[in-house]
Request: fold
Amino acid sequence: MTKTSAPASEHRERLRRVEGRHNAAIKELRQAFAHAERTASGDCAIEGLRIVEEAIRSGLRFRSVFFKESAANLAERLLPQIGAQVDTLLVSDSVFDGAVPSETPQGVAALVRWKEFSLDETLERLQIGPLLVVVGLQDPGNLGTILRSAEAFGSAGVVVGEGTVSPFNAKVIRASAGSIFRLPVVVARAASELERVCERLRRDGVRLFATSSHKGTPIDQALLTGKQAVLIGNEGSGLPRGLMSQADELIAIPHATQVESLNAGVAASIVLYEAGRQRRSA
Reply:
């Protein structure tokens, strides 16, 4: 059976063929990708074989799964892992490619819903590792890398603050390699929401560290254990001055003087690794 052949008969009956880009399910998928936000019903659009399988492994609730006609063989692999109540659709190549933003779509996309975490629930995890507060980060790859490292090295979760790319952006989800499905992510993109988060952290005795590219305590000399939050800023301009002034301590990653600064995703990963190392040593 080639990659373009029809799915096995036992799975074919589960697929509902949809025609035309104006189909309601297709429109919802296209708009979810275009706006990089959850739909009115709370679902998020994902695409790609690996990401869909990560969503299954993470126990996400699927609403709809869309298979590209020329990649219908993927149904044989995925449908046995997806509940029978989930709507599964077979879509023409042109309609699928028009709905999915990837330049090279792999042939499967889905609308899914994952668990939402409150700030209270996230702060209860501070014994695992630091909370990351990301402000003004605009590159999807950077945010996805931070989410992946946060799960790998141990983090209470990530607060997505003002001016930061949406965590529901397809590129963020892809770069996170599925970590976003399992890691607590709290969205506080309005300035007032972020202020309330910082006030709550102070009230709970959480120590605030701000990362800096050129000054501060070297991270291997800073005490990165205990209840703490690490503030990560914009790739170019760093943290807003007002937020920087709220930090209890500035920390820096020593690096070669000819390098102006580190990529935000790399810098956050190094801080998380060092915090984890110190916790293990303690």
